[in-house]
Design goal:
Order of helices and strands: EEEEEEEE
Number of helices: 0
Helix content: under 10%
Number of strands: 8
Length: 103
């Protein structure tokens, strides 16, 4: 389970879609250098806020492999960024989730 504060989202993803809150990147590197906002890379780690019911394949519903609260790694340019209730979230397909992070 993730240790970050959970945010309740007001949208329900369809099929095999997942709503993720990307993790904030540190502004300061371990060396002590501060990174400008414009120089930061897109995050590839986040917390799952909502999941769809799954995808229908050959007449059967394939279950989701991630659940709300999981911390995951996802493809760098995957999904669609949107604003929900003032928060930036990412909606992407489950196939773009690369791994679960065990913390």
């Amino acid at each position: 389970m993730a240790t970050e504060t959970q945010t309740k989202v007001s949208i329900q993803p369809l099929a095999d879609r997942v709503v993720i809150k990307p993790s904030e990147q540190e502004a300061q590197r371990p060396s002590g250098i501060y990174v400008a906002e414009t120089a930061k890379e897109k995050p590839q780690k986040g917390t799952v806020l909502a999941v769809g019911p799954g995808k229908w394949e050959n007449g059967q519903l394939e279950p989701m492999t991630v659940e709300v609260g999981d911390t995951v790694l996802f493809a760098k340019y995957a999904g669609t960024e949107i604003k929900v209730d003032g928060d930036e979230v990412l909606i992407l397909s489950q196939k773009d989730v690369l791994a679960k992070v065990q913390e």
